[in-house]
Amino acid sequence: MDSDVWVGPWRPHRPRGPIAALFKSPGPKYSLPPNTGYILHDPSRPRAPAYSFGARLPTQPRTCGPGPGHLVPAGMTVRGPDGSPSYSIHGRPRDSARFLTPGPGRYFPERAGSVAYPSAPRHSMASRNWGIRSEQQTPGPASYTVPSLLGSRVVGKVSAPNYSIYGRSAVGAFFEDLSKTPGPCAYHVVSPGVYKSRAPQFTMLARTSLPEDNTRKPGPAAYNVEKPRKPGGWSFGIRHSEYLVPITTDVNT
After folding, report:
1. CA neighbours closer than 13 Å in the CB half-sphere of residue 7
2. Which residue in 95, 99, 116, 132 has its CB near the most CB atoms, within 10 A?
3. CA end-to-end span of the chain, whole Å?
């Protein structure tokens, strides 16, 4: 390519490092913080002080002094209560309990016995005393247990290997179904009417009853033969006035 096309020493070349033009920006997704208000204000911009109106506090009542109902006690002075001695009359205290000293008749020297007079020594056979503790705490021969020589947990002995029989595992056994194939019981018996001509099907209905008169009728006991039936009677009608005009309707005309 001719060198006269390019102006200056710049020529097209591969950039030495990553430049900002090679990266994609999120676009107008992020908005700049506002410069008005107090909340979420732009920290790079000066913010004017914000003031708010507070609530009016209730006025505290001030007491200038007691009212006319305040009564100063008679024994109260400027420097406090009156310090003059005052006396009161108390009740008579109760007498303290007297010490009941026993008299000469309360002593019985003849009952002293061997305490006051010399006597021969007396001995008795008591039970055996084991000392301070009444039970013997020394372990007997049966308290020591000799370790067993059977099993794999023998102390100070070399034990032979022990084997145990485990149950049959379902994983890795010869009968394990890796393909999960359904068995014969997984299939249901298909009705022959699906793949063959279906025969006519009949159902048996319940027995139908003939229409009857279900009204309740009086039985023989409902009739009273002994009670006679009253014959028909006549009564006098209402007398009409001769001057009463008859009502004329369209049917009469």
Report:
1. 0
2. 116
3. 130
DSSP SS3 for 22: helix
Strands 76-77 and 80-81, how do they pair?
antiparallel
**What global pTM score does this model have?**
0.15
Per-residue pLDDT of the chain (253 residues; tens, 9 = 90+): 555 677 788 788 777 777 777 777 666 666 788 888 888 888 888 888 877 788 888 877 777 777 777 777 888 888 888 877 777 888 888 877 777 888 888 888 888 877 777 888 888 887 776 655 556 678 888 888 777 777 777 777 777 777 888 888 878 777 787 777 787 888 888 888 888 888 888 888 888 878 788 888 888 888 877 776 666 667 666 666 666 666 666 655 5
Q: Tell me how long the chain is.
A: 253
The whole-angstrom separation of Cα 135 and Cα 114 is 36
Token pair, residue 36, equals 């008005």
Beta bridge partners of 81: 76
- d(CA 53, CA 191) in angstroms, rounded, equals 88
Cα separation, 38 vs 100, in Å, equals: 95
Phi-psi region of 106 (alpha: psi -120 to 50; beta: other; left: phi over 0): alpha
149: number of Cβ within 10 Å = 9
Q: Which of 60, 33, 30 is nearest to 47 (CA)?
A: 33
Residue carrying the six token digits 């000392």: 131
Query: For the CA atoms of 124, 129, 134, 137, what is the dihedral angle to 10 degrees?
Result: -160
Q: Are 186 and 177 in contact (CB under 8 A)?
A: no
Q: How far apart are CA 74 and CA 84, in angstroms?
A: 13
